[in-house]
Model the fold of this input.
Amino acid sequence: MSSLGEIKGHISAIEQTRQITNAMYLISASKMRSTIKKIDYNVKYMARLRSTMKDILLHTDDLSGYHFIRRRKESRNVLIILVTGDKGMCGGYNLNAVSKFKETEEQFAGEGIRIGAVGIVGEEFLEGRGTPPDYKWRGVIQDPTLYSARQIAATVIDEYDSGRADEIYMVYTKYKNSMVQTADVMQLLPIELEDFEDVGVEFAERTQLNFEPSPKAVFANLVPQYLIALIFNMLVQSSTGEYAARMNAMQTSTSNADEMLAGLRFEYNRTRQLDITNEIIEIAATAGTVADNS
Amino acid sequence: MNTFKLEVLTPRREFYSGDVEAVTIVLEDGEMTLLKDHEPMLAALEIGEMRIKTADGWKNAFASQGFVEVRPDETLIFVQTCEWPEDIDEARAEETRQRAAEAMRQKLSIIEYKESQAALARSMMRLRVKKHLN
Done:
């Protein structure tokens, strides 16, 4: 049986931890509420953009001339961008993204792999295993902006244009709802019609699109715009997912702390009562001895 | 009235949705005004001033890069950012303009140079749209 002082110390330690987890829970809950407004619209926007993109790919005669939209080569160099949080304390969120990343990486075993990292956790994981990322974007994920999406898109396009990467993927966390977030991988470049199987076409019966001023000029603009919107969408989803995961993890921690505190308080009271009882027994025994002797 | 459905979407919000008489956009080779029953078309949008004509008259807005798809049923404009003149923060645009102009004078990588160039163009266009209002 531990002493009263020990239990007291234990209780105050847990109370402090509980305060931290509870504060983190409240912070992530309020942050999630603010990003959740963004995500609902953004997911709808993305669905429309992707169906338009599919529409365009379906209704363009000859896509062979556009290097953003071409078949896979046999030998390939890939760039994989890993999106994680800037900090931990969010349950399996970072771990899931990292294991999805490892899985993706295995698919390209034997090929040239280059890596980009959004978020400090992913960056540290990559450095820790001896493969530091070629690109890192820090402080982006907490509040994704179009500005950071533009920067990432510019790098992606540069890698692809220069031929350093033939295929570019992004590992991110897909946000379904506040309880369910799954790590997923999305092909950024090249853009292939097969990637659009999950979206319907809004407008099917049409012959040909006119391109103004020329197909080449349109695609040169369209693809970067599409990529920026796509990357922004994935950043927003990952960021909301992180807040949701942290909220759930911190809620669990707080209720665990509450449970432990209840147990400890019970033990504390029992020990205190035992001490008092022992003291009374001692006093009574002493009093008895004194009475006998007198 | 000869109107058609126009939707202007940005990653952050639905900027405009409704029936319009005409919309003027800026393409690579100049301005273009779309009316009802325009032939199906796909065009790349440059940073510029977008003008929307409804029954209440013309309304101007700042639009950054994007693309427009004209369909028989509606016209869709996807842009990165779109702002009404009253929403443009003049002081901030001016600050961005100066910062981008300064950044372009430094020795930069091609990516950074292009970024600054685009930021400069956006801020200058914002200021222009804002001044039209005043």
User: Anything to note?
Assistant: Residues 4-83 of chain B form a domain with the ATP Synthase; domain 1 fold (CATH 2.60.15.10).
